[in-house]
Design brief:
This protein is an alpha/beta fold. It folds into two domains: 282 residues, Crotonobetainyl-coa:carnitine coa-transferase, domain 1 (Rossmann fold); 77 residues, formyl-coa transferase, domain 3. The protein has 18 helices and 14 strands. Strands 8-7-6-1-2-5-14 form a seven-stranded mixed β-sheet, sandwiched between helices. Strands 9-10-11 form a three-stranded antiparallel β-sheet, with helices on one face. It has a two-stranded antiparallel ribbon with strand order 3-4. The longest helix is centred in the middle third of the chain and has 24 residues.
Length: 410
């Protein structure tokens, strides 16, 4: 699959233009962090094992033998097929790290050290280098050596316990949210480290754990347990302690998500559904009073929604400025005019001439927006060009290929 280079179509300056990133990770967390940097102009060299490449290339639904997910996770990157297990491969990575601004890895703790590529050693050689390390449990602590995927981090971080109907088995979120949260925490860490480097000239190591990234988003769980010995349990579609906010069934069987938990919003909502008695009840004027009567409020709202189709419900709620929406599947997203207007549905051309729609870039920057510059690379597509840039001759590259240390385009 030939990468499509569209950089000439986007002449504006990129926020991370000139930044060199070396990506040693695979699958989701590390590569998602690198993808985010690449979207905003960083040059990302992705190291992949020759022959097989990143396992994500074969995950879920394939087109021409490659996952379409790959086109999202690896856009704007270059692929260098290189065997990290060999001394020669390690020496090449060491050379690349000497010229890099950022190195990203998400192997188990100790893997880099075992390859002679410890972050401390790399930073000693290249003092400006910033190293992002993402792992299941972090680089320290009694669990550091345990294997950890996103789903385990989601469970240990407290999220899985909450994602269920009361009394039923907790379910996982339908995407790898633990990995993605870790990637985004990693990007935050990189941007903080870049600011520190701007002041001091010094790089540093960023240690991100999957479970901690999830735990960081758990809002009031810990202080509530500390202060009241309260263990929040699963609550289905409701949000405990905040009312009214829930999914309410409509006449056509669809559900409307209604967030009427603001004080003035609640009053407008109750007026709309002809419950002035509740709108004007002093005991319901703030959240604490509404939480005490949440079942009554939910019943009143659903009695109203059950008489109307979801589109009518949403139209009426919008007319009085009550936050509401319906549950989208991906077909709804692909057809939604707001997604299109916000450039969140980007259409790219594959090497066979077919079209593929992928998510747009977030966040939106006014002066240096992110952009899709090139399609995700074939395995080893950029091996020759990267090695030539490092000063290797054609004969040296051919010798490395013959030994299986590097691989060409597959």
């Amino acid at each position: 699959m030939k990468s499509q280079d569209t950089s000439s179509q986007h002449p504006q300056t990129s926020a991370l233009q000139g930044m060199k990133v070396l990506e040693l990770g695979q699958l989701i967390a590390g590569p998602f962090a690198a993808k985010t940097l690449a979207d905003f102009g960083a040059e990302v060299i992705k190291i992949e094992p020759p022959g097989s490449g990143d396992p994500l290339r074969k995950w879920r639904m394939l087109k021409d033998g490659t996952s379409v997910w790959w086109q999202v996770q690896s856009r704007n990157k270059r692929s260098l097929a290189l065997d990290l297990r060999t001394p020669e491969g390690q020496a090449l990575v060491n050379t690349l790290a000497n010229e890099a601004d950022i190195l990203i890895e998400n192997f188990r703790p100790g893997a880099l050290e075992g390859w002679g590529l410890s972050p401390e050693r790399l930073i000693e050689q290249n003092p400006k280098l910033i190293v992002l390390r993402i792992s299941g449990y972090g680089q320290t602590g009694p669990y550091r050596n345990r294997p950890g995927f996103g789903v385990i981090g989601e469970a240990m971080g407290g999220l899985r316990h909450l994602t269920a109907e009361p009394g039923r088995v907790p379910v996982r979120v339908g995407v790898s949210i633990g990995d993605t949260l870790s990637a985004l925490h990693g990007v935050i860490g990189i941007l903080l480290a870049l600011q520190h480097r701007h002041v001091t000239g010094k790089g540093q190591i960023i240690d991100v754990a999957l479970y901690e990234s999830v735990f960081n988003c758990m809002e009031s769980l810990l202080p509530e347990y500390s202060a009241f010995d309260a263990i929040r349990g699963p609550a289905g579609s409701a949000l405990p302690g905040i009312a009214p906010t829930n999914a309410y069934k409509c006449k056509d069987g669809a559900y409307a998500l209604i967030a009427g938990n603001g004080d003035s919003i609640f009053k407008r909502l109750m007026t709309l559904i002809d419950r002035n008695d509740l709108a004007n009840d002093p005991s319901l004027a703030d959240n604490s009073g509404r939480v005490a009567r949440v079942t009554e409020l939910d019943q009143a709202i659903e009695a109203w929604t059950l008489q109307r189709n979801v589109e009518e419900v949403l139209e009426k709620l919008e007319s009085v400025s009550v936050p509401a929406g319906r549950i989208y599947n991906i077909a709804d997203i692909a057809a939604d005019p707001h997604y299109a207007a916000r450039e969140m549905l980007q259409h790219i051309e594959m090497s066979d001439g077919s079209k593929l729609t992928i998510p747009g870039v977030v966040p939106k920057l006014s002066l240096t927006p992110g952009q899709h510059r090139r399609n995700a690379p074939k395995l080893g597509e950029d091996t020759d060009s990267i090695l030539k840039e490092m000063g290797l001759s054609a004969a040296q590259i051919a010798e490395l290929k013959a030994k299986g240390i590097v691989g060409g385009a597959v």
